[in-house]
Amino acid sequence: MSITHLKNALRRVRCWLPTRVHSTALRGVLLATMLAGSVVQAAPKVEDTIAQRLQGCTACHGAQGRATPNGYQPRLAGKPAGYLFHQLLNFREARRNYGPMTSLVDPLGDAYLREIGEYFASLDIAYPPPQAATATPATLQRGEQLVRHGDAARGTPACQQCHGEAMMGVAPDIPGLLGLPRDYINAQLGAWRSGKRQAQAPDCMAQVARSLSLDDIDALSQWLASQAVAAPAKPLPEWPATRKMPLPCGGVSVEAAPVAGSQIGSPR
Amino acid sequence: MSARLKALAVALVALGALAVVVVMLNVRGEGDLGDEIAATAAPPVGWRATDEVIARGAYLARAGNCQACHSARGGAPYAGGRAIETPFGTVFSSNLTPDAEHGLGRWSAPQFWRALHHGRSADGRLLTPAFPYDNTTLVNRADSDALYAYLRSLAPVAQAARPHELRFPFNTQVALAVWRALYFEPREFQADASQSADWNRGAYLVQGLGHCNACHAARNALGATHGPLDLGGGLIPMHNWYAPSLANSREAGVADWDRAEIVALLKTGVVNRASGLVTASGPMGEVVLRSTQYLSEADLGAMATYLQTLSAHADATQAATAPDAKRPKPNPRGEKLYADRCAGCHGDHGEGVPGAYAPLAGNRAVTMRRPANLVRIVLEGGFAPDTLGHPRPFGMPPFGQTLNNEDIAALLTHLRTSWGNQGTEISALQVNRYRGTR
Predict the structure, then answer these.
(1) Contact B244, B251 (CB under 8 A)
(2) CB-closest option in A17, A54, A112 to B355
(3) Count of other CB atoms within 10 angstroms of residue B275
(4) pLDDT of B3
(5) Helix, strand, coil: what percent of chain B each, to 5?
(6) Does the residue B99 lie in any domain?
(7) Which of the listed residues B156, B183, B210 is the one where a domain comes to its end?
(8) For testing contact with chain B, the best of A26, A92, A106 (most B CBs within 10 A)
(9) Residue B74 counted as domain residue
(10) A44, A102, A111 ranked by CB distance to B353: nearest
């Protein structure tokens, strides 16, 4: 082991040590420990990065939050930061109900949750190919119809109205709809429809989900999960200044158009 | 009078006498508190405490972690409504905001004192001991009044208290009266003249507002502990975390720690000891997060002083039972899982990383006789509390979703029997017991 190697290793070790233990004596001990290399096992090489601190997320959400092939837990990488932050808050404050997530985020404060959201939002990782649809052409057609045009008769806005033409969301608060497992989309829309999943009031997605039938939800998740994610695969950087949202959303700081005689949200 | 009638009469008289005793035991020590309550205007008109008293009350409320139980997840602070699961049914915490209808708005200071000290509500009803009045009875009157002042300074929240869902007979005042006659006595904190003022301050906080024994003590079939002095460890009912003994160096006793290390653990949630990183996890992480991190170094030091004498005393009386020094059985499954899933952070030999990851070699939390916490940490993962003194904690992934019971049992057996650790083996059945608990 060369002296340069040792110095580098020492720098790595120092970066995660609390300042108060940076003492010459300690450096001496560490140096001695490393020199003894073959006798005493050196501690694992752990760097103090946000990625390392968030290793806890990767067991379910995959390395760098790229999702795993298990088909349920959603991808985190590249989702808008504000959306991710709001979901972490929603888990901590019981607007979303999934025990493992709630117990993980329970001891964490707002500043850290915001940082976690920003970290995963900053990751630019290629999307895997989409899931093959298992539904009939008629169902897929219905799904696409809802995504692109909504259902005026029921007051269901088109998904694209808020989630963007490319359906990759709008920074910082509106998530993309592509690159997610079918089961996950299905479960989320179902949970919103039944009130099990909530967002900050006014909860626009609850209104939208209540305007959908279970068949509609199936059609939407089938179609969305089967779409390839096209480059640049990123949310729009900001909401277009000239447009208004069709519904007011507590989790999104964009003005909504006045709702004129809309039936959105009436339970079906 | 026939013999039968006579027996009945005797039985009735005996029952009546017993009832009188139970009633007397339930109001003992109240003295002329009733007169004081009657003489005090409720609600107090134009009542206003000094800012200093309110600040002191806020501090004491932190020390008692009142907000943790008296707030629902995502709900308004102190507005109550949190479900407390007990072996006797569910208790819902009360609204402590000064709302006249649903909270403490119409309570007077002596009524509040009676709740803390005697476990009775403003209307005289007996409170359920899910509210730890066996501890709060030790809180002195000045502190009670400061807490009252603080709670009255909060914004009122009009949120109705949800009725408890306790099973019969536990949902009756009679059952509570009997329980209290058996297990509760209002008491003042008695300073021990042979100990320092520091020790006595620590004892007052640990036994009183801190209500440490609510978790760190075993409970009998009726949910009673042996009182605030018993910190010998216990499984937290319904939650299935084991609150380790604070009086045993093989569990969580701190007799051989530096006082500063105890303070650091309570202040920040973690401490780097010579033997490696120690983290407050599970329910203790929550206590640090919401309560102890806000306490002054002086008060935490006082608690440390008290806790150290506690374990020194108990350890001296404890028979030293040397664990079996037998060689571990070959466990290739556990070894491989460890190498694949754990060694990256905890090291090839369980040495851990100072400041980031706890060592597993020589860690008493790994080898402890009751494996509840070890199983749950591996099943559920988690972060150290995100405190002012130690923000942005490192996290551990949950393995409950990706490893089955047999895998986790093999892995934990490996941890408990490797690198000189001499814990017992863990079975898949033991792992299964802790799945799906909160």
Answers:
(1) yes
(2) A17
(3) 13
(4) 86
(5) 45, 10, 50
(6) yes
(7) B183
(8) A106
(9) yes
(10) A44
Residue after which a domain boundary falls, among A76, A104, A122: A122
Which distant-in-sequence residues (6+ apart) come within 8 Å of A133 by Cβ?
Answer: A140, A222, A223, A225, A226
Q: Nearest CA to CA, how far is A45 from chain B (Å)?
A: 8
Please report the ipTM that was assigned to this predicted complex.
Answer: 0.91
Q: How near does any CA of chain A get to the CA of B217, in Å?
A: 24
Which of A52, A97, A105, A119 has the highest number of chain B CBs within 10 A, making it the mutation to test binding with B?
A52
Same domain for A258 and A140? yes
* Shared-domain flag, residues B112 and B62: yes
Flag residues of chain B having pLDDT under 70.
1, 41-47, 312-327, 437-438
Give domain status of residue B190, yes or no: no
What does B331-364 look like in DSSP terms, one character per residue?
A: -HHHHHHIIIIIHHHH-TTS--BTTTB---TT-H
Contact: B383, A17; criterion CB under 8 Å: no
Does residue A101 share a domain with residue A158?
no
Among residues 75-94 of chain B, which lie with CB inside 8 Å of chain A? none
Decide if A112 contacts B391 (C-beta within 8 A): yes
A to B CB pairs, distance under 8 Å: 112
Type and span of the H or E element at B109: helix B109-118
Please tell me whether residues A148 and A226 are part of one structural domain.
yes
Length of chain A as a residue count: 268
Which structural domain, as residue segments, surrounds residue A40? 1-48
Interface contact B395, partner A, CB < 8 A: yes
Residues B330-385 have pLDDT tens digits of 999 999 999 999 999 999 999 999 999 999 999 999 999 999 999 999 999 999 99
Contacts (Cβ under 8 Å, ≥6 apart) of B262: B254, B271, B300, B303, B304, B307, B308
Residues A153 and A26 grouped into a single domain? no
Residues A109, B73: C-beta atoms closer than 8 Å:
no
Domain that holds residue B339: 332-433
Do B202 and B153 lie in one domain? The reply is no
Same domain, A113 and A159: no
Q: Do A100 and B289 touch (CB under 8 A)?
A: no
Q: Which residues of B touch A107 (CB under 8 A)?
A: 269, 285-286, 289, 382-386, 393
Give the burial string for B189-213 (b: 16+ CB within 10 Å, else e).
eeeeeeeeebbbbbbbbbbbbbbbb
**Whether residue B201 is found in the same domain as residue B259:** yes
- For B295-309, the pLDDT digits (tens) are 999 999 999 999 999
d(CA B375, CA B360): 14
pLDDT digits (tens, 9 = 90+) for B32-91: 888 888 888 666 666 678 999 999 999 999 999 999 999 999 999 999 999 999 999 999
For residue B340, give the amino acid letter.
D
Q: Are residues A58 and A99 in the same domain?
A: yes
Helix locations, B208-357, DSSP H: 259-268, 283-290, 297-317, 332-337, 343-346
Q: What is the CATH number of the domain that holds A118?
A: 1.10.760.10
Both B34 and B174 in a single domain?
Answer: yes
Number of domains in chain B: 3
Record: contact A44-B344, CB cut-off 8 A = yes
Looking at residue B342, its amino acid is C
Judge if B88 and B172 occupy the same domain.
yes
Which bin fits A194, alpha (ψ -120 to 50), beta or left (φ > 0)? alpha
In a domain, B323, yes or no: no
* Cβ within 8 Å, pair A109-B400: no
Number of domains, chain A: 3
**How many degrees, rounded to 5, is the angle at CA A24 between CA A23 and CA A30?**
90
